[in-house]
């Protein structure tokens, strides 16, 4: 099924190898869409691309990459972009997303989402990269706000302004990770709802939700290894009230539980989603 | 200058163990990387501790990827393995966008070094390669077949699937148990395996005689079947007679049955005018 044939609004789940067999064998699981990390399927053969192909034939899939290095000093190589384009086409993803970060230092790949200095020059470069990626990939390329643990240098602008400048200059959509906002708010001491209000919410095209881990030092790490906590679910509801219906994704990459447990968590998010839509429609209903 | 901060992160993550509490060392690290004085001052003002979290995260990701591929080698070598992993990160570092490639990169780095290190058992590279080939073959990209493969004949190279590797070890590492706590050394025994991906996507291992391995080595290098037979029998001191021809035919038929061999690489027909 082409993902463009139906709306992806609602709650989807990150497709992980741990439960790939169950998904293949299961009938309709009631998810709005699946999200994959294309680097796990690109440039490879064998079982995993085969299984993904079968799933993509019957359910919508979007791609969420890790190595575009949008803010890096060097642009992503064209052969990587072409392989990514082929993967996006293979699964029929209606858009691709990656992170507002860098991930390599020259030829050395660091395999981490590393923070950019929040400056206008970096926003301009990231926007250029996003436009180039969109041109090569042939689909909209959304950019995601990351969790960052330290700022690398002198900040020239608040993070919300940095993100806004990137998406406005690139004329692209924002993948708003509300867990990342909440984690950053805890680690750096700001009010998450004010941060979200400062973003260009009309540019949000997808939302991510995930769990995190608090270390003994008090620092919270964006591990995607635990259940989503209630404050993050509340922040999701707050965000949805402002954005309206939206594709929302539950990410779980570490300590992946059994699929039924993940589907229960999707159910919690769906309930929060529905409550947010009800709250959003209530003032309209009263004024009608 | 973004390149300077990228260099700083690379050294932080891949280089020697840093000392976050020492402002002089932090300043020296930032200066070495070319970070501007203003950015360096801001990092020092904020305290570099949280920046150093990235070292832990990056090294854990890379190490997990290697452990996923060669867990028994890592457990058997213990601290010696850690030492080489540290050297690899520092001297080369990961080059591929695909995490699954890091093990091959690491082993390529270690291959010329381990034979000279008496702490590394002589079978260690055999075991590491044997473990690593599983993911390599499982994930090998299968290119489109292109031209229809032809019938085998002596004058034409043989066409295999892409997901096939011929492995040659000095030790019988394929007979070791899968247990991480097993420390039984493998027997010193020349071993040749054909590792291939079945049509059902499983990785399979086929032990070969020296002659079969020699024939397949040449075929995989692109030699025509007849030339491969001549060369392989010569190099193994085997007489090229009826039994070798019959055995080769049986081997190739078996490989075709297993889905590892698809036919002959018929050369393109010549244009005539």
Helix content of chain B: 40-55%
List segments of chain B where confidence is low: pLDDT < 50 over at least 5 consecutive residues.
Answer: none
Quaternary state, please? heterodimer
How many strand elements of chain B? Answer: 5
Explain this structure.
The complex is a heterodimer of chains A (288) and B (273). By secondary structure, chain A is an alpha/beta fold. Chain A has helices at residues 20-25, 47-58, 78-91, 120-137, 159-170, 178-188, 192-197, 230-243, 259-287; strands at residues 10-14, 34-36, 61-64, 96-99, 102-105, 108-114, 141-144, 174-177, 204-210, 213-214, 220-221, 247-251. Chain A has a single domain, classed as Divalent-metal-dependent TIM barrel enzymes (TIM Barrel). An 8-stranded parallel β-barrel of chain A has the order 1-2-3-4-7-8-9-12, surrounded by 4 helices. The relative contact order of chain A is 0.13. Chain B is mostly helical. Chain B folds into 3 domains: 2-51, no CATH class; 70-120, no CATH class; 145-264, Outer Surface Protein A, domain 3, CATH 3.90.930.50. Helices cover 50% and strands 11% of the residues of chain B. Chain B has helices spanning 2-14, 23-33, 37-46, 53-69, 71-77, 79-91, 102-110, 124-139, 210-220, 225-236, 242-258, and strands at 158-160, 164-171, 188-197, 203-207, 261-264. In chain B, the strands form 2 sheets. A 3-stranded antiparallel beta sheet of chain B has the order 2-3-4, sandwiched between helices. A two-stranded antiparallel ribbon of chain B has the order 1-5. In chain B, a hairpin with a 5-residue loop joins strand 3 (188-197) and strand 4. In chain B, helix 1 (2-14) crosses helix 2 (23-33). The radius of gyration of chain B is 25 Å and the shape is elongated. The mean pLDDT of chain B is 94.
């Amino acid at each position: 099924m082409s993902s463009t044939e139906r709306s992806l609004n609602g709650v989807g789940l990150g497709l992980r190898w741990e439960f790939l067999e169950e998904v293949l064998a299961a009938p309709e699981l009631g998810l709005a869409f699946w999200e994959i990390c294309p680097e796990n399927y690109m440039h490879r053969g064998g079982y995993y691309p085969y299984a993904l192909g079968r799933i993509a034939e019957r359910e919508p899939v979007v791609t969420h990459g890790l190595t575009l290095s949008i803010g890096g000093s060097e642009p992503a190589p064209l052969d990587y972009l072409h392989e990514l384009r082929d993967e996006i086409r293979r699964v029929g993803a209606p858009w691709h997303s990656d992170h507002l970060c860098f991930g390599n230092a020259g030829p050395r790949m660091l395999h981490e989402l590393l923070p950019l200095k929040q400056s206008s020059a970096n926003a301009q470069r990231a926007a250029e990269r996003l436009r180039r990626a969109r041109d090569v990939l042939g689909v909209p390329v959304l950019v995601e706000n990351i969790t960052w643990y330290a700022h690398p240098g002198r900040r020239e602008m608040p993070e919300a302004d940095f993100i806004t400048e990137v998406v406005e200059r690139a004329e692209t959509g924002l993948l708003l990770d509300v867990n990342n906002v909440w984690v950053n708010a805890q680690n750096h001491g700001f009010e998450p709802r004010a941060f979200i209000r400062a973003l260009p919410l009309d540019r949000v095209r997808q939302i991510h939700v995930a769990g995190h881990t608090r270390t003994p030092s008090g620092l919270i790490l964006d591990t995607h290894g635990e259940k989503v906590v209630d404050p993050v679910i509340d922040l999701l509801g707050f965000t949805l009230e402002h954005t309206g219906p939206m594709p929302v994704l539950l990410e779980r990459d570490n300590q992946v539980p059994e699929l039924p447990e993940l589907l229960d968590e999707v159910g919690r998010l769906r309930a929060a989603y529905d409550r947010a839509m009800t709250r959003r429609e209530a003032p309209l209903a009263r004024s009608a | 200058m973004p390149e300077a901060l990228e260099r700083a992160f690379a050294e932080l993550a891949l280089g020697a163990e840093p000392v976050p509490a020492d402002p002089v060392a932090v300043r020296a690290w930032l200066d070495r990387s070319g970070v501007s004085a203003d950015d360096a001052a801001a990092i020092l003002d904020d305290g570099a501790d949280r920046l150093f979290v990235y070292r832990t995260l990056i090294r854990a990701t890379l190490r997990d990827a290697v452990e996923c591929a060669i867990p028994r080698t890592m457990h058997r070598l213990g601290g010696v393995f850690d030492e080489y992993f540290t050297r690899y990160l520092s001297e080369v570092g990961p080059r591929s966008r695909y995490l699954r490639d890091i093990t091959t990169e690491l082993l390529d780095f270690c291959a010329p070094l381990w034979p000279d290190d008496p702490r590394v058992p002589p079978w260690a590279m055999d075991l590491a390669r044997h473990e690593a080939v599983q993911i390599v073959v499982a994930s090998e990209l299968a290119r489109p077949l292109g031209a229809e493969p032809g019938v085998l004949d002596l004058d034409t190279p043989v066409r295999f699937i892409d997901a096939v590797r011929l492995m040659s070890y000095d030790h019988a590492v394929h007979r070791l148990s899968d247990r991480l706590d097993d420390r039984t050394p493998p027997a010193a025994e020349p071993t040749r395996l054909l590792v291939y991906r079945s049509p059902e996507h499983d990785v399979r291992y086929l032990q070969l005689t020296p002659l079969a391995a020699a024939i397949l080595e040449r075929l995989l290098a692109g030699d025509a079947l007849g030339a491969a037979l001549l060369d392989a029998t010569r190099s193994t001191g085997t007489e090229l007679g009826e039994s070798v021809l019959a055995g080769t035919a049986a081997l190739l038929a078996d490989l075709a049955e297993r889905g590892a061999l698809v036919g002959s690489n018929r050369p393109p027909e010549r244009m005539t005018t």
